[in-house]
Specification:
about 90 residues; Methane Monooxygenase Hydroxylase, Chain G, domain 1; 3 helices; elongated
Length: about 90
């Protein structure tokens, strides 16, 4: 446990930020999971909607610094690649 006043405050800030970041990261993960499930189901229209929602959530997470921008870009790229494979069938 910290004894220094500034470190006690820093610990409180870190905890509140961790909880806030956890929500953003969780919603992004859930959106990606839903998009992958829609792609596996094979319905192009539903998949496109789900992928667009996932991309939006990933962009928001990257903007807030919860995930690295390259990490978000890689995930978006993989989703779009999978979506394109379904749409060409």
């Amino acid at each position: 446990m910290a004894n220094i006043k500034s470190q006690i405050k820093r610990n409180r800030q870190n905890e509140s930020r961790r909880l806030r970041n956890r929500v953003v990261r969780g919603t992004a993960r859930a959106a990606v999971r839903d998009a992958r499930a829609a792609i596996l189901a094979g319905d192009a229209a539903t998949s496109k909607e789900a992928v667009l929602v996932a991309i939006s959530r990933l962009d928001k997470a990257a903007l807030k610094g919860v995930v690295h921008k390259n990490n978000a870009a890689r995930r978006k790229s993989r989703l779009m690649k999978a979506l394109a494979a379904i749409e060409t069938k």
